[in-house]
């Protein structure tokens, strides 16, 4: 679901829900989050192996009632340091459960500390960036891992273990750090100082597959499409005879939510589509047709584009734009929900990363970059209960679920689109004329990407309209028109991104097509910054 339609809910009781789910599920790996920026990637890597994994905070861990189905525990990295008096710990009982444990970075240091090792934070112990691994001893954890091709690992640590705890052995080292991989076979405890979860580490997945299959001996396979039945049944038994309202944007998340709930409760699902006038060319009509005609959903259209343009008149500030668009949407949606007394539930396309991001491992708040990263609040008076069937899934898993629900490819594989739509891709003031110009340019870019079979290789691509005019020459005449910017990135999850490397001929073709085909644009530029330091959207 596009985040515009994600009406963020206060007081989401995440830990209780996760614990309830943990009881009834298949074999799994749990990841204890110590606050690393990349903890999410650990869960992804494990799920890529078709093994179910969940991220727990220390609080979740303390509330956990049963460890029956937990076959392995991974301790993430994090900003804490065991060299201080007070540091983030796990309860000692965990070590008595005979469940294999893998510590990553801070996780390794924590394990070493708990078993009597010495950790130091002197400057010479620091390692940031790539390092080369040397094998010291065989271990199941590195079986078929270190070879001439795979030996670069990604380091990001200030502290280092300088004395091995009793009972542990060194498996691998780097030039800077002797204790890079350690193990205690008897206790089934392993630690890696580097980050196997990030792509900068060569074949880091092998470390996870060795841990999961050779050490934890997991057999159950997590198949996302076999989850479909369970999700449909869960919606049925939760909602019973009540009605559910759902904001349908045509993004992959809201589309999958709508199809899933429709399978469970049919006509009792009311989908609302709000035309803000800020969607891509033909997107609104196309989405409506698909859901109304092809899937026969109960879709209600609200045309609010005039209202949106009026409220956005003369507004340039990105955060003000977001606020206006978000609030307007809530008001429209609220009004619709109130019209039907039978509606008791609100369906949202909340994804697993949203859940992880809305709770903090350490209690600290990360700095606000853009308001969509922060959890806001839905007016309490709306009084609807939530249905969030996708709350356990990553985006790629939602796409697989979409496939098993026969979601058309053009929606299933659609790039993410921000809630505020084209309003944050028109830098500065938003007018219907500028939206029209942008829609045309964006449509040309996206069609060319599809034609050249590049669209599916790219995580997100779009055109933005810059607030400046420059001089050009077309035929024998001077032009003075807008500049548009092409953005196209590859990414795992939108948290970091790299620009896509187009061929010169592709860029030439796009530039010609846009300048010739879109009156109002006489210059095209390509954004070659990665995230960080830039962000994916310009505003
Ligand atoms: P940034 O620009 O923060 O974007 O690198 C990361 C991802 O989030 C999307 N994005 C938004 N989505 N409302 C949304 O629903 C917003 O206000 C918003 N801003 C950025 C962006 O398209 C990218 O996929």
Number of domains: 3
General form: globular
Ligand kinds: xanthosine-5'-monophosphate
Approximately how much helix is present in the residues?
A: 25-40%
Sheet having the most strands: 8 strands, mixed
Task: Set out the fold topology.
Blueprint lengths: L13 H11 L3 E5 L6 H10 L3 E5 L1 H6 L6 E6 L25 E4 L1 H9 L3 E3 L6 E6 L1 E2 L16 E6 L2 E4 L5 E5 L7 E4 L4 E4 L11 H12 L11 H13 L3 E5 L4 H14 L3 E7 L7 H12 L4 E5 L1 H8 L5 H22 L3 E5 L4 H6 L27 E3 L7 H10 L4 H4 L19 H20 L8 E15 L2 E14 L7 E2 L4 H14 L3 E6 L13
Parallel strand pairs: 1-2, 1-3, 3-4, 4-12, 13-14, 13-16, 14-15, 16-17, 19-21
Antiparallel strand pairs: 5-9, 6-8, 7-10, 10-11, 11-12, 18-19, 19-20
Helix pairs in contact: 6-7, 7-12, 14-15
Tell me what you see in this structure.
By secondary structure, this protein is of the alpha/beta class. Helix content is 32%, strand content 22%. It has three domains: 3-215, Rossmann fold, CATH 3.40.50.880; 224-412, Rossmann fold, CATH 3.40.50; 425-526, GMP Synthetase, Chain A, domain 3 (2-Layer Sandwich). It is built from 15 helices and 21 strands. The strands form five sheets. Strands 2-1-3-4-12-11-10-7 form an eight-stranded mixed β-sheet. Strands 15-14-13-16-17 form a five-stranded parallel β-sheet, sandwiched between helices. Strands 18, 19, 20 and 21 form a four-stranded mixed β-sheet that branches. Strand 1 (28-32), helix 2 (39-48) and strand 2 (52-56) form a beta-alpha-beta unit. It is globular and about 75 Å long. The protein binds xanthosine-5'-monophosphate. The site of xanthosine-5'-monophosphate has 16 residues, from loops. Xanthosine-5'-monophosphate is lined by residues 2-4, 322, 370, 372, 416, 418-420, 460, 494, 531, 535-537.
